[in-house]
Amino acid sequence: MTWTAPQVEIFSGSTAADERTMLAGYLAWHRSVLLHKCAGLTGEELARRTVPPSSLSLLGLVRHMAKVERIWLRERFAAEGVERLHPGKDVDFDDADPADAAADYERLLEEQRLADKIFASAALDDTFTHDGQVFSVRFLYLHLIQEYARHNGHADLLRERTDGATGA
User: What is the enclosing helix (H) or strand (E) of 139?
Assistant: First the structure.
């Protein structure tokens, strides 16, 4: 049986709340948009590079965002000492294998869950140092929102080129 990415409802958060709720809500919204862009597609469709000469694919974006979430939350902030996902430049995009789509999708969900657990135990003003620069938890939220926003734009184009689907 061929795996197909599940249907996902786009998160609907508060438009008037405290800073923490707004940051978490916007991150949840962007995460759900990426998953929504993948919904209903098979591993083959997710891995398809529809905008040549770019190596981007929806599956590559799923793999990339799992890596980004892990690097910033688990590796850098929580200092968990976990192994780097898809090490090397563009490996997350270049080595996207349709046969691994279900596992890659589940890995993103797991990294999101673990990141949320870390966020829940930290204050926005908590900091960590990476490469001599101090970063706050507030920065982590903003950075992930920015990273998802950038790649959700790519996902819009990739999905449209895959099957014509448009919109959030």
Answer: helix 137-163
133-168 in b/e form (b: 16+ CB < 10 A) is eebbbbbbbeebbebbeebbebbbebbeebeeeeee
Query: What is the chain's mean pLDDT, rounded?
Result: 96
CB atoms within 10 A of CB 128: 17
pLDDT attached to residue 10: 95
Give the helix/strand (H/E) hosting 129.
strand 127-130
Instruction: Convert the pLDDT of each residue in 7-29 to its tens digit.
Output: 999 999 899 999 999 999 999 99
Peptide bond into 98 cis (omega under 30): no
Q: Position 123: which residue type? A: A
Element (H, E) at 38: helix 19-38
pTM value > 0.85: yes
- How sure is the predictor about 88, in pLDDT bands with cuts at 50, 70 and 90? confident
Rounded to the nearest 10 degrees, what angle do helices 137-163 and 19-38 cross at? 20
CA dihedral 34, 145, 56, 130 (to 10 degrees): -140
The residue-averaged pLDDT of 86-91 equals: 90
- Is residue 96 classed as helix, strand or coil in its secondary structure? coil
